[in-house]
């Protein structure tokens, strides 16, 4: 059978080949044609070489990638995969062959996949290696578990005491979340299950998820792929079984405070046995476009790579070095052994078995099949170790902080035919420290309970719900204020009448956000938090987790409701914030939430007019429509639904999906941004399964 490439009306590639290896090659080929620039940016980021063409702004990431040893870990994992699972290794290699063929076509001249960004930076597509997809996966997810939060907790506990851990616990500034819900057949109009949800990630252009169909003699799967990685890992539908994930918010990466010293032979680290042990050491040059090359010292102790500091301490002289221990670096396994079995799955038992090989990120998984089977479990590796490891940076030289095995992974059932996952403290509660507030999960379940039966056409309305339950903490304090007059009294009454929906056209939502921001800024200015305003000189990549204003903004509900807050007079502070905003609004034209709450999609090469063109958004951090502003800092939303999906187990062709931009990554292409208006309105496009309704683009060229 000749390998075929078809497209639907939205430009989504539907690939058909004789076997999984020819299909993987076709997936790599079409991804290179559609998203060459994105693939090359991700390859360079995984290698720590992106500053060579993106310039100084990319240097911090490149240094982190070198020090955390992303590429070397990927090589280790690929070598182990080749030895232990040669079929999967060959399948990944076939994908890489396809990518290289597609990039070579682009390099030879104009083509459907040509991207103008290459000319802007003077970059030619490079060559992918068999380990590159593993490096891209690792680079994409290395910060998923939010290990830098341990640096924050260390500082917060040092200055405020142990209670600060719980007080500031929430879905943090850099942590990815998601919504997902499973409705069993007993609650649907067809008698077959539905799966729906939306992964919340940094919204990138091109998008982090690629709509695709992969069909061969062994399987026929539609789903959302990660560009640069073969298969369909997170969200897929084989026709008889479908699966979806959210971030489990598990803690599976540890930070160690290291004592290092230089010797004539190199660098040594003090171990828990009281002895000094040789640390691996070498230097690597990081090339920076337009600037001098930077030499990076790469150190690794018996715990793991040193990601901050060194024998001389941090850049500000703080005598500190921090190493990171993460599962793939320890085991040499990135979980790619799960990818082919997922594509071949026919029932939830097959998905369940495949996920036993999953490594990271640690996810909550839901699945359902056409025979009525359902699955709700955690997948991934979480090490067994001391409780302190999960909360803070632990001393490497003290015994008791070693890994001693892997946690058994919990499972859960359905309640009244429904299971909801929204990063809350649920099935994975025993595996993490910080979880998302329960508001999204509670709201989804409440909406599902409003009717007994659901159809695939009904569920997209849940995706775009904008009710903000977390607003209650601030509104309750406003209710208790007395003696207000003039504009402040009028604003207070307006907010108390507000329906608590963060709709883009709502002036009340805008007023609430203004008061909330003022409260956050005033809290951050309190003397009790003064020591947290300037964090130690950690690497730039880690600083978003240590910024005080976002930490207060995301934890505002806790901070306003706790019995006592370090002597802060919160009613007086809220009164002052209300009066500040009320007087600032006098004489100004009314503003709606969407005037300032706009999409700030990440682009490797941003255009000067990007912000001016940014579309208005509904939603907020704790809404089901989770478009995350940073209260007190900015109303722009860099994070939001990176895709939306509804998987129908009755008829796969009744499933539907959407991504924030489009199927193609090249600016100006008809399918570059054609799904954006639908995404903004909360609409989804049909999943096409009839080959007769697709347009055949070409046969993939033969292997060179």
From TrEMBL:
SUPFAM superfamilies: N-terminal nucleophile aminohydrolases (Ntn hydrolases)
Active site location: 178
GO terms (BP aspect): antibiotic biosynthetic process
UniProt keyword list: Calcium, Hydrolase, Metal-binding, Zymogen
Amino-acid positions noted as binding Ca(2+) in the UniProt annotation, renumbered to this chain: 251, 254
MF (Gene Ontology): hydrolase activity, acting on carbon-nitrogen (but not peptide) bonds, in linear amides; metal ion binding
Cofactor (UniProt): Ca(2+)
UniProt cofactor note: Binds 1 Ca(2+) ion per dimer.
Family in the record: Belongs to the peptidase S45 family.
Protein name, as recorded: Penicillin acylase family protein
């Amino acid at each position: 059978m000749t390998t075929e490439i078809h497209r639907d009306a939205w430009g989504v590639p539907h690939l058909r080949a004789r076997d999984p290896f020819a299909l993987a090659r076709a997936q790599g080929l079409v991804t290179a044609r559609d998203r060459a620039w994105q693939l090359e940016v991700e390859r360079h980021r995984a290698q720590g070489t992106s500053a060579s063409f993106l310039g100084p702004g990319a240097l911090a990431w490149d240094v982190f990638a070198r020090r955390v040893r992303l590429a070397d870990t990927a090589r280790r994992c690929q070598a182990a995969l080749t030895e232990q699972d040669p079929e999967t290794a060959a399948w990944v290699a076939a994908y890489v062959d396809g990518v290289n063929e597609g990039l070579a076509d682009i390099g030879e001249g104009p083509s459907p996949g040509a991207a103008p960004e290459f000319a802007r930076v003077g970059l030619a597509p490079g060559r992918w290696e068999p380990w590159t997809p593993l490096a891209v996966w690792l680079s994409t997810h290395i910060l998923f578990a939010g290990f830098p939060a341990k640096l924050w907790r260390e500082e917060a506990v040092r200055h405020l005491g142990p209670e600060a851990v719980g007080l500031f616990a929430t879905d943090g500034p850099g942590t990815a979340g998601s919504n997902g819900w499973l409705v069993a057949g007993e609650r649907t109009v067809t008698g077959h299950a539905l799966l729906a949800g939306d992964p919340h990630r940094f919204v990138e252009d091109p998008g982090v998820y690629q709509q695709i169909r992969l069909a061969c003699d062994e399987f026929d799967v539609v789903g959302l792929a990660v560009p640069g990685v073969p298969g369909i890992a997170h969200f897929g539908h084989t026709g008889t079984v479908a699966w979806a994930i959210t971030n489990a918010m598990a803690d599976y990466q540890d930070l160690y405070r290291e004592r290092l010293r230089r010797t004539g032979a190199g660098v040594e680290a003090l171990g828990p046995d009281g002895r000094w042990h040789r640390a691996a050491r070498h230097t690597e040059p990081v090339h920076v476009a337009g600037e001098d090359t930077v030499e990076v010292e790469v150190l690794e102790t018996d715990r793991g790579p040193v990601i901050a500091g060194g024998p001389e301490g941090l850049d500000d002289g703080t005598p500190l070095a921090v190493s990171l221990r993460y599962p793939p670096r320890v085991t040499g396994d990135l979980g790619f052994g799960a990818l082919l079995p997922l594509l071949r799955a026919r029932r939830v038992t097959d998905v369940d078995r495949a996920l036993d090989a999953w490594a990271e990120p640690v996810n909550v998984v839901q699945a359902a099949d056409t025979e009525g089977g359902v699955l709700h479990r955690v997948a991934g590796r979480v090490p067994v170790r001391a409780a302190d490891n999960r909360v803070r940076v632990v001393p490497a030289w003290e015994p008791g902080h070693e890994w001693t095995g892997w946690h058994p992974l919990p499972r859960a059932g359905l309640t009244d035919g429904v299971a909801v996952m929204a990063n809350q403290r649920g099935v994975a509660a025993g595996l993490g420290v910080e979880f998302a507030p329960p508001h999204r999960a509670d709201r989804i379940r409440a909406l599902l309970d409003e009717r007994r039966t659901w159809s695939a056409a009904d569920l997209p309305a849940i995706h775009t719900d904008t009710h903000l339950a977390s607003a209650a903490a601030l509104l309750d304090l406003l209710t208790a204020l007395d003696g207000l007059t003039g504009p402040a009294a009028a604003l207070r009454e307006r907010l108390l009448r507000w329906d608590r929906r963060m709709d883009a056209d709502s002036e009340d939502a805008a007023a609430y956000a203004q008061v909330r921001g003022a409260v956050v800024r005033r809290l951050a200015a309190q003397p009790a938090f003064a020591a947290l305003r300037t964090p130690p000189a950690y690497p730039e990549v880690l600083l978003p987790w240590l910024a005080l204003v976002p930490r207060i903004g995301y934890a505002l509900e806790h901070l306003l409701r706790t019995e006592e807050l370090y002597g802060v007079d919160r009613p007086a502070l809220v009164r002052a914030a209300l009066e500040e905003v009320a007087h600032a609004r006098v004489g100004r034209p009314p503003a709606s939430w969407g005037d300032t709450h706009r999409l700030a999609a990440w682009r490797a090469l941003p255009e000067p007019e990007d912000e001016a063109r940014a579309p208005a958004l509904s939603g907020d951090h704790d809404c089901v429509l989770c478009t995350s502003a940073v209260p007190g800092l900015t109303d722009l939303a860099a994070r939001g639904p990176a895709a939306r999906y509804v998987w129908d187990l009755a008829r796969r062709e009744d499933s539907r999906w959407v991504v924030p931009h489009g199927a193609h990554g090249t600016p100006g292409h008809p399918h570059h941004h054609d799904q954006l208006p639908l995404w903004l309105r909360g609409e989804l496009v049909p999943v096409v399964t009839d080959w007769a309704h697709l347009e055949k683009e070409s046969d993939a060229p033969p292997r060179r």
